[in-house]
Every structure is written in C-alpha cells, then in structure tokens.
Amino acid sequence: MRIAASTVTLPKTTRLKREFYNREPIRVARECLGKVLVHGETAGRIVEVEAYLGQDDRAAHAWSGVTKRTEVLFGPPGHAYIYFIYGMYECLNFVAEPEGRAGAVLIRALEPLAGIEQMRKRRPAAKRVEDLASGPGKLTQAMGITRRLNGCDLVTGELEVRAFNGEAKPEIAVTPRIGITHCADWPLRFLIRGNKFVSGKPIHI
DNA sequence: CAATAGATCATCT
DNA sequence: GATGATCTATTGC
Fold first, then answer.
1. Closest to A46 (Cα-Cα) out of A139, A180, A120
2. A63-94 tens-digit pLDDT
3. Rounded to whole angstroms, how far apart are CA atoms A35 and A31?
C-alpha cells in the first residue's frame, strides 16, 4: 500500500456490518485483528486488542452494571465506547453482543496506514512510526478520537471499521490483559504475531 | 536496557 | 476519598 503526504491509496475495503459485532467479545476481538480503523484522513490497521466480558468480568467497566458511563456498553452492538482514564487519556472500545449484554473489545494498537503526518503532529512525543499508535491512549490521540465520539455508530457514523477484501487471517498470539488488577491472568489479549506496531515488545511465539 | 515517579480528573464507593 | 483497561521523562544499572 502506498503512503503519501496527505492522500493514500488503500486496497479495496468493505465497511463491517452490524452482525460482525453482534457476537461474543472474544470472537469479535480476534476477528478485529487486521481490520482497518478510519477517522477523517487517518487510518490504521488493528494489530492488538483485548476482550472484556461484561458483567461477569471484574476487570470490565460493565462489572458494576448500568451507569451513566456504561450505558453505551449495554446498548446495541457496533457502537464506540470511549472513556477517559488517568485524568489524561481516552480509550476506544467496540461494543459487542446484543443490547442488554455488555461485552466489548478494547483497541490497543494500530499500524498507521494513512494520515501519518497528521498523526505525528498530534503525537510529537513519538519518535518512530512504531510509537504513533502502539497503545490504547496513543492511538486515540493519533487519530483524533475523543469522548465526543462516545456512542458513535461504527456502521454508519464518522468512525469506520473496514476489512481488506480477500485478506488472509493473520496469525494470532494470546496473552493476559495489560494494566488491570482483577482477572489479571485471563488470556484475553490478542495480537498479530510478530507485528512491530503492538504495545510493548512484538510477540512471535 | 529496567524500574519508577508524576501528571491529572471522571467515576464509583 | 481512592482508584484507574496510560504515557512520558528520568533515574539507575
């Protein structure tokens, strides 16, 4: 794929439909790998995600039930759940499962594909392209995703998720989730094996 | 390299 | 009032 200063040529892609998200979060998480997140002129390939299992998962925000913050999680699938954390950062999730259940997928890292100059402006701390979106707080910054987009419909709204037509399934590595204290040993983090744009070190096992 | 402190505030107890 | 699905800069080996 070619990258230019302000415009990009991506191979043909198709936007994901509602049914993609209307499944159990582990399934959605694994299938998100290799898909493309698009916002404005920026785009990135999803290379790392985590599954959150809703009310049965002590580490999930949905664990404490429906609140002002979590109502999007309990809503219909295919919407963005974006929350503010550590007084400074915002994290992007895709809402999975039917309305009433609160499974979600945390997007943890992207391989930048388009709008890289804009990403660099938004993230002056990043020295290398590999640092632009290699973490949940970094990728929202790089792509200009804020709480303004909480509840945004991924199927029809300004935030898009697309699949490369005919792309082979990537090889997936599995680890425990990062940065949580509860259920810290559950194997719910999924990455593209060997990819250089993941958070932390690449995993090739 | 690895370990750690500090930034900073919405949310829930 | 404490905590948190994080990141960066700095310190020390």
1. A139
2. 999 999 999 999 999 999 999 999 999 999 99
3. 8
| A115 SS3 class | coil
DSSP E strands: which ranges in chain A? 2-3, 8-9, 13-15, 36-39, 42-52, 80-85, 89-95, 104-114, 159-164, 172-175, 189-192
Strand partners, A61: none
> What pTM was estimated for this model as a whole?
0.95
Q: Distance from first CA to last CA of chain A, Å, rounded?
A: 27
A138 sits within 7 Å of strand C by its CB: yes
How many CB atoms are closer than 10 A to CB A37? 24
Cα(A55)–Cα(A39) distance, integer angstroms: 30
Instruction: Give the nucleotide at minimum CA-to-C1' distance from A133.
Output: C7
Nearest protein residue to B11's C1' (by CA)? A69
Contact A183, A111 (CB under 8 A): no
